[in-house]
């Protein structure tokens, strides 16, 4: 089984007090972890917005030496775009609006048969056919 990490999931190890439960699950599934190109963008964007200094360098090193070195970055491709468009239309007909990037991340997970790992389960439960887990509990 593959686990696609949401942006908050790849950021968890960088917190001052990361969840021990999350770190344990991360170690347990080494080799089965992937991210979407959308998450990669969000992580890089956050890093580039940081002021120069030790913290930014630590995040840069983590993204390069841990995330990019050990996790495949899956694209938001035509298959994911189709899935996302159908889900946006279905949810829109029910009066639900979901942040565009969340829909893209969900689409990459769903179309690649991966379970999405996020601390924001509530934001992703609205999508049909998407497996979601919160490893921080």
Explain briefly what this protein structure is.
With 137 residues, the protein is of the alpha/beta class.
Which structural category do the helix and sheet elements fall into? alpha/beta
Report strand order across the widest sheet: 3-2-1-4-5
- CATH topology name, in short, is Rossmann fold
Our measurement of the CA-to-CA distance between the termini, rounded to an integer number of angstroms, reads 20 Å
Shape: globular
Outline the biggest β-sheet.
5 strands, parallel
Strand % is: 5-15%
Q: What is the number of independent domains?
A: 1
As residue ranges, the low-confidence spans are none
Structural features, described:
It is a single chain. The protein is an alpha/beta fold. The chain has 7 helices and 5 strands. It has helices at 7-11, 20-28, 37-49, 54-70, 78-93, 100-111, 121-124, and strands spanning 2-5, 33-36, 72-74, 114-117, 132-133. A 5-stranded parallel β-sheet has the order 3-2-1-4-5. Helix 3 (37-49) packs antiparallel against helix 4 and helix 5 (78-93) packs across helix 6. It is globular and about 45 Å long. The mean pLDDT is 96.
Properties at a glance:
137 residues; alpha/beta; Rossmann fold; five-stranded parallel β-sheet; 7 helices; 55% helix; globular
Secondary structure topology:
Layout: E1 2-5, H1 7-11, H2 20-28, E2 33-36, H3 37-49, H4 54-70, E3 72-74, H5 78-93, H6 100-111, E4 114-117, H7 121-124, E5 132-133
Parallel strand pairs: 1-2, 1-4, 2-3, 4-5
Helix pairs in contact: 3-4, 5-6
């Amino acid at each position: 089984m593959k686990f696609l990490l949401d942006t908050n999931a790849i950021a968890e190890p960088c917190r001052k007090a990361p969840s021990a439960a999350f770190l344990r699950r991360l170690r347990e599934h080494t080799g089965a972890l992937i991210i979407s190109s959308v998450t990669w963008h969000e992580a890089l964007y956050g890093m580039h917005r940081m002021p120069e200094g030790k913290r930014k360098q630590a995040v840069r090193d983590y993204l390069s030496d841990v995330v990019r070195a050990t996790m495949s970055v899956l694209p938001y491709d035509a298959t994911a775009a189709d899935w996302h468009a159908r889900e946006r239309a279905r949810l829109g007909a029910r009066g639900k609006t979901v942040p565009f990037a969340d829909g893209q991340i969900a689409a990459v997970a769903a179309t690649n048969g991966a379970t999405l790992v996020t601390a924001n389960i509530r934001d992703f439960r609205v999508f049909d056919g998407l497996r979601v887990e919160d490893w921080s509990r």
